[in-house]
Write a structure and sequence with these properties.
Blueprint: E1 7-8, H1 14-23, H2 28-40, H3 53-62, E2 69-70, E3 75-81, E4 87-93, E5 99-107, E6 110-114, E7 118-120, H4 129-133, E8 135-138, H5 141-158, E9 164-169, H6 179-189, E10 202-206, H7 210-218, E11 224-228, H8 234-240, H9 249-263, E12 267-273, H10 281-290, E13 296-302, H11 317-326, E14 331-333
Parallel strand pairs: 1-2, 6-9, 9-10, 10-11, 11-12, 12-13, 13-14
Antiparallel strand pairs: 3-4, 4-5, 5-6, 7-8
The structure holds S-adenosyl-L-homocysteine and iron/sulfur cluster.
Length: about 350
């Protein structure tokens, strides 16, 4: 609902849309046309489209100012391009004036969209710009979907014929703190009649919200799970990730083990390397021990600079990687993308252009 008490059509999954139309006597065929217009054709002006009369009438009566429904179409307030032209950061203003960030990355002809799931974040990781700004509010499903539609619209303009292949929930916010909206949005985004990004091309990145991981396991959720770990002992981790006090490392690893056993899926562990904090050979060896028996891929992220954290990027990433590989874990470095436009991991902070690296 927005302030005027209207519902967003973009908040509705396919069955929700079918139900809403059926309640007004509009049949399934028309629900399919509307779904296609919204999610495949990126329609923003439904009144201008050539629908069959029953759907046209429903739209006239139901969508727009003073009517029950509206469309989520955040206003692009700024668009910043990285110097290599491969990354674009969009600042999008939501209906209530909140500004969130969405990033479009293209390399090797493949395009990935990185979306926000909250305005701000409540988890307070010390090295993250979003954490430093604090929590503002959850996003609705439609506000998450609309970011993908916006990125796709831009992609069609700059590279016609290209499709979004991957989606990562690594923008502002903690997806599993807003899990209902996130799962509804992902259902919409992965629907083959609409946007159609395959579930195996979608990554949900969490700081380690254990109930969310347990729910993904119980539901055998088809999306990829990425867990931001950053510490191999409780002490090491809580110093960087305060949320670890709520869901301690031991509990988190147990939940990951359970997730792996129940779903048979690999887990991607993210590790932001910070000099002197979590980059020693001892830490790498402890991490390998901790993850023993889990089908794990470790993704090392070079620390990106943020205003509120004085820690330094690590110079011993290669040695760290070597130890994990020797222990049998696939271990890769995340490519540095968009650092000069503050679109790199943890640099998203609405309304501010963080200083260039
Ligand atoms: N809240 C989720 C997803 C958004 S953050 C999560 O924490 O997983 C996406 C990734 O960026 C996380 O792995 C996070 O630890 C990492 N990150 C945050 N700030 C960073 C920074 N300054 N430099 C490098 N990586 C950072
Ligand atoms: Fe939130 Fe993720 Fe940033 Fe931590 S790293 S503050 S969980 S967005």
């Amino acid at each position: 609902m927005n302030a005027a008490g209207q519902r967003s059509l973009h908040d509705l999954g396919f069955s929700g849309l079918v139900e809403v139309l059926a309640a007004s006597g509009v049949i399934l065929h028309h629900a399919k046309s509307l779904w296609r217009a919204l999610h495949r054709e990126n329609a923003l002006d439904l009144a201008a489209r050539n629908f069959l009369p029953p759907l046209k009438r429903w739209i006239e009566q139901s969508v727009g100012e003073g009517k029950p429904f509206f469309l989520d179409a955040p206003e692009g307030v700024d668009e910043i391009h990285s110097s290599d032209g491969l990354t674009r950061k969009f600042l999008l203003r939501l209906n209530d004036g909140q500004v969130i960030e969405t990033v479009l990355m293209g390399y090797d002809g493949r395009h990935t969209v990185c979306v926000s799931t909250q305005a701000g974040c409540a988890m307070g990781c010390v090295f993250c710009a979003t954490g430093q700004m604090g929590f503002v509010r959850h996003l609705r499903p439609g506000e998450i979907v609309a970011q993908v539609l916006h990125a796709r619209r831009i992609l069609q303009q700059i590279q016609p014929g290209r499709h979004l292949r991957n989606l990562v929930m690594m923008g502002m916010g903690e997806p599993l703190h807003n899990i209902d909206a996130v799962m509804t949005a992902l259902g919409i985004i992965s629907d083959v009649r609409g946007i159609g990004i395959g579930p195996s091309k979608i990554s949900v990145s969490t700081v380690g919200v254990v109930p969310g991981i347990q729910r993904m396991a119980a539901e055998n959720s088809p999306f990829r799970l990425a867990v931001s770990l950053h510490g191999s002992t409780e002490e090491e981790r809580s110093a960087l990730v305060p949320a670890s006090r709520r869901w301690p490392l031991e509990t988190l690893i147990a939940a990951c083990r359970e997730y792996g056993t129940r779903t048979g899926r690999r887990i991607f562990f993210e590790w932001t390397l910070i000099a002197g904090k979590n980059d020693s050979p001892e830490t790498a060896a402890r991490l390998a021990k901790l993850l023993e028996g889990i089908d794990a891929h470790i993704n090392l992220i070079p620390l990106n600079p943020t205003g509120g954290f004085s820690g330094m990027a690590s110079g011993s990433g290669q040695a760290f990687q070597k130890i994990l590989r020797a222990a049998g874990f696939p271990c890769t470095f995340r490519q540095r993308r968009g650092i000069d436009v503050a679109a790199g991991c943890g640099m998203l902070k609405a309304g501010k252009r963080a200083k260039c690296a």
